[in-house]
Amino acid sequence: MTERSAFFAERAARNLDAGESPSYFEEIALLDPSFVRQVASRVATRQGLTLLSHSLSAFKVLNSTVAAIKERGRETESWERTLPEPPRDPKTHLSALSLAPSGNAGSLTEEDSVRIIEVGRLHRDFWEAVRRRPDLLREISPRKFEIAMYELLGKLGWEDLELTPGSRDGGLDILAKREIDGLRVHFGFECKRYSPRQLIGPGILRSLLGSLAARQIPKGAVLTTSYFSKDAIQFLDAHLALEGRNFDDLVTWVDWALGKNRRGATGLIRPETRADHAGIRTVLETAFEAPGEARLVDTLRQQAKPLVSLVAELDDRVVGFILFSPVTHADHPELEIMGLAPMAVLPSHQRTGIGSALVRAGLAECERLAISAVVVLGHPEYYLRFGFQPASRFGLGCEYDVPDEVFMALELQPGCLAEVSGTVRYHAAFREL
What we know:
Layout: H1 3-17, H2 25-29, H3 35-46, H4 56-73, H5 110-132, H6 136-139, H7 142-155, E1 159-163, E2 174-180, E3 183-192, H8 202-215, E4 219-224, H9 230-238, E5 242-245, H10 247-257, E6 267-271, H11 277-288, H12 292-303, E7 308-314, E8 317-329, E9 337-345, H13 354-368, E10 373-377, H14 380-383, E11 389-390, E12 396-398, E13 407-411, E14 422-425
Parallel strand pairs: 3-4, 4-5, 9-10, 12-14
Antiparallel strand pairs: 1-2, 2-3, 6-7, 7-8, 8-9, 8-14, 10-13, 11-13
Helix pairs in contact: 1-3, 3-4, 4-5, 11-12
């Protein structure tokens, strides 16, 4: 049992012994399966009981402990009902979950043991359930979301993790450290379990900056089940100490943390920062074996707005990059259309799913920004999987002389290209390639 589990078990025992319901159910629910047994063991010891073999009397102590813990969390457990019921043999758990009063033997029933095991199961099933249905992150309580992010950061390799108290946390929910460019950097995280329509605004980011300054923590991030408003995105761009991770980022984190990356390493898809520019240049020059695309990206950063620019980070190294920049249609200036280019992954990391993850994350961000459509010049067999189809089906042509099938379009707002025809033009910087 971990020191953290032992600490909470002892605290739970003191509260339960005093007849109080624990006020930290969310912390309990995601701990290891032996937690409830440890709590009950401490309660039993306080009541003059000893840890022996099976006992109905001991079960009553354990069951009352379970009931008190679950009572606190009943209103926040709607997601638990959606979890699958994997096959299990309760009999194999009986000896590990048994308590007995001194000198009085008995036995737990199979039904009773199942009731006990269910509390300990949450932490084993939770992440697989989230991977199958990511919206579960929006259905748990705000405190449980904080704990989920605490666990997720641990799975992604963050170190010295600390979950702050549920209240009076000084504006920071999680503290952690990570090595960046050879230095261990201290981060503070603020977690916001919001609905998709409740956007993160700059006010939350300003508050986070203040909390970081008060604790002298150099870097911080907001983790949310929602998205960031345009003003918030501009605020993030202007403050290098801050990062933002939206719902799509968290879904990608879960996929990577649970092993969808076949190489077994942990990684993430996130917006680029200034600190990434050198790494992005390396990716582009290595993948394209020429400096042209890297120079193109430098120019677009300065001259084209808005941009959707994402990196794939693996073991603190940029291994992939994707950029979406505005394209124009002379007859329909009201349409906001983005062009996907360039996209690159280091040769050593190609065919691992990084490119597909970049495309999906980029399209999701464009959709969040209310972009009407996206066009791309690329291999049809690759981009058709994301919903692209030949742009000629929409009456659209490319300004460059390319085969019809390699210029493709995807409507992010269904029907937006229904009555549109003509030539799509890229930013002037593309003509210098």
